[in-house]
Structure of DnaJ homolog subfamily C member 25:
Amino acid sequence: MAAPLAPRGGAGVAGRCWLVLLPSLLLVLLLARSAGALVEGLYCGTRDCYEVLGVSRTAGKAEIARAYRQLARRYHPDRYRPEPGDEGPGQTPQSAEEAFLLVATAYETLKDEETRKDYDYMLDHPEEYYSHYYHYYSRRLAPKVDVRVVILVSVCAISVFQFFSWWNSYDKAISYLATVPKYRIQAMEIAKQQGLLRKAKEKGRNKKSKEEIRDEEDNIIKNIIKSKIDIKGGYQKPQICDLLLFQILLAPFHLCSYIVWYCRWIYNFNIKGKEYGEEERLYIIRKSMKMSKSQFDSLEDHQKETFLKRELWIKENYEVYKQEQEEELKKKLANDPRWKRYRRWMKNEGPGRLTFVDD
């Protein structure tokens, strides 16, 4: 007669419990192994830095430095000579080099107060693996120079480059205007009235060559143009307050000014219902046209007067003006011979069509 079978319920429950706990146990083992490997790679590894230098944990900086110099002279690869009965770590040149590197690592660890504090904490709390790993590499990988100094130097360098770049553009604009007959003739008339051209053409001992006279006249004309013409936009005269460094320094002031201006705008025009002034109307027009302040300032005065006459700060009037501008642009393009040739080419050839010419 066959023996009765043992109940299978208990074995099944135990097997399922092991299956549930097995991944957790494996994860714990892996983490413990990786944590231990990380600690072995920190500081002096499995050796105690104090024991490497032969000092106690209460040793001062002078004692640590003295022990390091003695061991460094002893185990330096170029000067090492094994002594009879030497039981130190370096018995061969190769092992002496390893001992020298270990001594140097121990000294680098203990000479800095912050690093030594972290190392002492690791000795007292060996179970906090990841904390020791973080402190070790955060100090090793930290930049040697203060980040604030790097940012300040970078901002100053960019500001200097901005200033010279803008000044170069301004000089190019003045040189171009000096070649335009309209502005050159007006500048020469002003120079004659002020008697500047006579000084350039002095005779006698101070007589100058034609090239020198021409260069001096050009400089006089350029200086008059600089003083009489207000260039706006990208070629305007560079201002110190427009540089990046001063923009950053003045950012809090500009932010507070904008908040005050915005509150006044809400109070005056949204709450009290006041009428817009000329400045406010131009601001609304500029925002509707999606133009920057420098772009809008570069427009001619008669254009701004036209905007005000047509009351473009009103949304309906601006939509009509915008549609008119689009229609006018279409008419110009339709009558432009270059645009006609382009449309004819697009119709006949197309951008992706290949044609072969038979000779």
